[in-house]
Amino acid sequence: MIDLExxxxxxxxxxxxxxxxxxxxxxxxxxxLLFEQRRVPEEGWKDDVIDFLFTLLSWxxxxxxxxxxxxxxxxxRVSSPFVSKLAHGFCHGVGRSxxxxxxxxxxxxxxxxxxxxxxxxxxxxxxxxxxNLKSACVLPLATGMTIGLAAAVAGDDTRKRxxxxxxxxxxxxxxxxxxxxxxxxxxxxxxxGDAVRVPINKLSEAISKETAAIVSTTTFFPPREPDxxxxxxxxxxxxxxxxxxxxxxxxxSRRIMxxxxxxxxxxxxxxxxxxxxxxxxxxxxxxxxxxxNPSYTEKVSxxxxxxxxxxxxxxxxxxxxxLGINGYEVLRDEQERNRHLLxxxxxxxxEKHSERLLNxxxxxxxxxxxxxxxxxxxxxxxYTLRVTGPRVLEETDFGICCRKYHSPYITxxxxxxxxxxDIRLAxxxxxxxxxxxxx
Length: 439
What we know:
Elements: H1 4-7, H2 14-37, H3 47-58, H4 81-86, H5 108-127, E1 135-139, H6 143-158, E2 162-166, H7 171-179, E3 183-187, E4 190-192, E5 195-197, H8 200-206, E6 211-217, H9 229-239, E7 242-246, H10 254-266, E8 271-275, H11 276-280, E9 287-291, H12 294-303, H13 311-352, E10 365-369, H14 375-384, E11 391-393, E12 409-413, H15 420-435
Parallel strand pairs: 2-3, 2-6, 6-7, 7-8
Antiparallel strand pairs: 1-9, 4-5, 8-9, 10-12, 11-12
Helix pairs in contact: 3-5, 5-13, 6-7, 6-12, 9-10, 13-15, 14-15
């Protein structure tokens, strides 16, 4: 490496040079600590430090070699500097054809980026509330496709093709599992008061000799409550079958992560899948597969076909480096406050319009009946009022997660990244939307 002090000797006064090198070392200190500790920094990095790290490592890939001769069919060639800039120079992608986490001979820098990304992903999940996870792999796939890979691992290990799935009306996980030719046995939910739940005894009854895995869910829209992942983990251990948890946007919630930790301690949890965009404020396209057993994340990485785009990898790494642990905890604190505020504001609106909040456990979202209103009109009004994200469903719509719910309803979220202003404006516009949709 370059010895700047020796090279710059006899250029400028020694004390001036030393001071300049000292400043440079101070700017580079976060990078040194990352390489040494391999943990998420307590304080987030400045953008220029992240940019420098990425530039430095991208220079290690063979497409940056000024004397290199590239004659292969896949040599990180791009049509313009702008295209390269969009990938921050990591144009080779990550992994090899048989293993996405394998170092890529043509891409030393990208391989290092991926190594540190996976180390920091595990560190983040452990410090977010699941210290009993032992391995993590960031994948350039959204949650549903990664659930499919996880189910494929279960199928290969057991030589069975059936997945028992507590009903969640969400197309992505279903399509992911069906894509890898797993037969999904959906177990219908029941209504208990306002809550929609899948009883553990119904799951037990659904298990057969052909069952490879149970895929449980921690985060969905109320009135669907999180599955009892602790009881399911015990059941999976007793039956000696895989247990995959779809923790799509659960990392942001301390209460949900406590459920994950308890499930791992209580029984069998093989893989936990979570989204990078929903939890860490990245563009859509990435997820994290984590496990208390490192062999299972390795099997998921080997199940992925071909090399992969580095874009979701570097976006996730940039996000957690910019946030740091302290920045992420600030966002989680804000999420909890906003969830409390959302409930308070929606309750006020509900009482004003002769509706009520649904009594359901959900640390991220709140639901309200629409018994006295035209449900679809409420949804349309919210959209025209430029509020994105609410879900309006009637008694038999896909999304209720059971055969028939007792009333139409609207669900609104206080997810990570939302602000107090968002909550107050959204509930204010809900008031207006309800006025225009009274029966």
